[in-house]
Amino acid sequence: MSTLWQNIQYKMLRSGSKLNLLIGINIIVFLVVNVTDVIGKFLFNTAAVSYYTSEYLLLPAYLPKLLTHFWTPVTYMFMHDGIWHILFNMLWFYWFGLIFEEYLGKKRTLGLYFMGGLAGALLFIFSYNIFPFFTHVHAAEGATLVGASASVMAIMVATATLLPDYTLPLILIGPVKLKWLVLFFIVIDFLGITGLNAGGELSHLGGALIGFVYVKQLQKGSDWIENINKLFKPKSKLKVVSNNTSRKPTDFPRQEEIDLILDKISRSGYDSLSKQEKEILFRASNNEG
User: Fold this and answer.
1) Superfamily grouping for domain 58-229
2) Euclidean distance between CA atoms 124 and 201, whole angstroms
3) 143 close to 125: Cβ distance less than 8 angstroms
4) Distance (Å, rounded) from C-alpha 60 to C-alpha 145?
5) Is pTM, for the whole model, over 0.85?
6) Burial of 276 (0-12, 13-18, 19+ CB in 10 A)
7) pLDDT confidence of 106, banded at 50, 70, 90?
8) CB–CB of 153/120 below 8 Å?
9) Residue 192 vs residues 10, 21, 174, 205: alpha-carbon distances, Å
10) What burial class does residue 103 get, using C-beta atoms within 10 Å of its C-beta: 0-12 exposed, 13-18 middle, 19+ buried?
11) 126-167 residue pLDDT tens
12) What are the residue boundaries of the structural domains of the chain, listed by start?
């Protein structure tokens, strides 16, 4: 048991992978909330845990309530409505997240997870308070959003935008290119925006949009996540001057080289890269990690 716990700690905290960290946090939150809820209902016949988590951790669409629950655009993306909800979210997150971190390094996963979740929250709130389909029945007053789906969709769409011809082997189906798999999910989500889970489907589309735009901007040389990180990095007062010219210029690939390679992957897939281009991408990925 101690070895298992040590392995979990290593993967979450010391492996450098933000994918493992985020999956671990989602699972821990789910277990804490649901185990305490079951104990409360079974031993004390109380649903207090369910009530307080729904009241204070899920994202409300009703603007007056949202103003007093301003933290929920963040907390909702770590909550899940049942075992199947978290299971499928984390499986897709893991499969696509591995590819995402392999090609773009481990520093961008956390940022895009939050960007996707916030984009999904924004589209959910905006739609429930603007569009007649919701406003004519005052749907926002009782609507809440729960789950990491918008964040996961951001990672999935970003990965498919970067590597559209990359294939995943699916059980009973066989190898499927990422672009067709993600397009299928987007069509399903769009068709569901007037259904029973309209809020969830809208949030998926918001996450998908930010994932697509992020990679397109990255291919143009603009890394939103890196720009945000720079705002919080303290500026060093020390200046270091080095005359050492022994370092090879190819040790750290230039951003222009990386952007050209990513653009080539987007157009014709990873297999179209030359050996030298793959080596440059590998060094860049290691440097990011």
Assistant:
1) Rhomboid-like (1.20.1540.10)
2) 9
3) no
4) 6
5) no
6) exposed
7) confident
8) yes
9) 40, 31, 26, 11
10) buried
11) 999 999 999 999 999 999 999 999 999 999 999 999 999 999
12) 58-229, 248-289
